[in-house]
Amino acid sequence: ELSLLCKRDVNGVGVLYDLLRSHWLQALLKVVELLHEAPPSGEIKELRRLLRAPHLRALLSAHDTVAQKDFEPTLPPLPDNIPENEEAMRIVCLVKNNQPLGATIKRHEITGDITVARVIHGGLADRSGLLYAGDKLVEVNGVSVDGLEPEQVINILALSQGTIMFKLIPVSDRPVSNQTTLYVRAMADYWPLQDPAIPCADAGLPFKKGEILQIVDQNDALWWQARKLSDLSACAGLIPSNHLLKRKQREFWWSQPFQPHLCLKSSILPMPLSLTAGFRRSMRLCRRKSRANQQSCYARCPSSCCSTFAAPYEEVVRYQRHPGDRNRLIVLVGPAGVGVNELRRRLIASNPREFQSAVPHTTRVQKSYEMNGREYHYVSKETFENMVYSHRMLEYGEYKGYMYGTSIDAVRTVLDEGKICVIDLEPHGIQIARTHELKPYIIFIKPSSISCMRQTRKNARIITDYYVNMKFKEEDLQEMEDSAKKMEAQFGQFFDQVIVNDNLQEASAQLLSAVHHAQDEPQWVPAVWICSDTQT
Ligand SMILES: Nc1ncnc2c1ncn2[C@@H]1O[C@H](COP(=O)(O)OP(=O)(O)OP(=O)(O)O)[C@@H](O)[C@H]1O
């Protein structure tokens, strides 16, 4: 009947005809039918009750009301005086909400034209798809920009409410974006509001060292656009390019009063490792002595040691260890006395079949109760020095005339057994351990506040230059806090995880979970660890 009426083109019948034939209505009718026919089981009753519930009806009604509304902005009519050469001119109307426009402008050095310098990814202008870098502005809200300074144009934009109308001459060859998104770890802090060189401080993206940034635009040699991994839905911001940030770092570096270079402070710190208390004790004294004396390097500075300044961003990729792969090396870092050794000891004791430390090398004489390869690998001075010069030591140093060190081979031995190797390093050693082969996961053990430590460390014992089992003094706690701050400031970008060692049980549990997390969960690691098979 309907189809006959439809052919006669009776008003509205066509719509009704389509409606009744639509799949979704058929499906809905089928549901209703089934609901009626189905035996009244508990679930059906529940569904009927839900469908009749006032809140569900209200929700559907709200949905319909919203869906019917027209939320498109009302744009003003086009101006009458559109020039003859219509092709060359474009009128762009943008409705400004509380967000910034998401574009920067500049004055062309030679022609004096005001052009769009860049369009910020994800910003209002970018989402409109109507403004492009290189577009020449002719008018803004009916005001000619001819002869105006960029700041004056910005002022007009800042003062305008609601709709902004641009009259512009589109850029002739629009840049084709064929960029791939890049992820980097920031190796420096950046505060755009304190950077007089940034083209638009409001468009800058502040970041802290260690943060992962998604770089979405590298068209400009000086200013890239990036988002923070922690907030990918936000619109991008300006960050200095690799080249520019390097230059800034150098300028900052030279403007500072003389400080010994990182590499001078690094390297030859005495730092053997062991499970035995005696060894640990000598090591601590070594480290303290070397800090007090401000020892400089006498060995070749590892090339990576100076790279903090060379690479303000480190390209990273997501890495998921395959179950068959070797475990990642776990490196604990922290100020003296914070509990690195205690936590490591507890972790290994919790499951010695899973966790193990690396056996250090020494040039000292083997004692009667010791076994070669258990407490230490006992080697001659020449062998030890050869290992140092062939870069086979992660850390090494001298104590009471003997050399101590942890070799890469010793770590490798543990990893080859399928175990998780847990070592502690002075932060200067992190750079040397960061290799494609070891893929270290760095955990920073941080002291809690001094007031908390006063409570928790009441019965703890510290080892000093003169006493072995001495109670923590106020200055020890202060030194720990100061040292932790310095470590975070200088090496924080390398820390994959930070554990505050307040309550020992809780910190131990956090360490265990962090170690498993490192092995089983995907992580951001330097791209060279994954992309280059030759990298070591
Ligand atoms: N959370 C904690 N609560 C109470 N005591 C703690 C805690 N963590 C560590 N300790 C105690 O503090 C003392 C120092 O710890 P530990 O020897 O592990 O320090 P460390 O970081 O290895 O220092 P160093 O590298 O100088 O040897 C030990 O007596 C340890 O048991």
TrEMBL record:
InterPro entries: GK/Ca_channel_bsu, Guanylate_kin-like_dom, Guanylate_kinase_CS, L27_C, L27_dom, L27_dom_sf, MAGUK, MPP4_SH3. Residues 179-249 form the SH3 domain. Gene3D superfamilies: 2.30.42.10, L27 domain (1.10.287.650), P-loop containing nucleotide triphosphate hydrolases (3.40.50.300), SH3 Domains (2.30.30.40). Residues 470-521 form a coiled coil. Residues 327-516 form the Guanylate kinase-like domain. CDD domains: GMPK, PDZ_MPP3-MPP4-MPP7-like, SH3_MPP4. Residues 91-172 form the PDZ domain. The keyword tRNA processing does not apply. It holds the Pfam family Guanylate_kin. It comes from the Eukaryota. Residues 24-74 form the L27 domain. Keywords: Coiled coil, SH3 domain, Signal. Belongs to the MAGUK family. This is Membrane palmitoylated protein 4. The lineage of its organism: Eukaryota, Metazoa, Chordata, Craniata, Vertebrata.
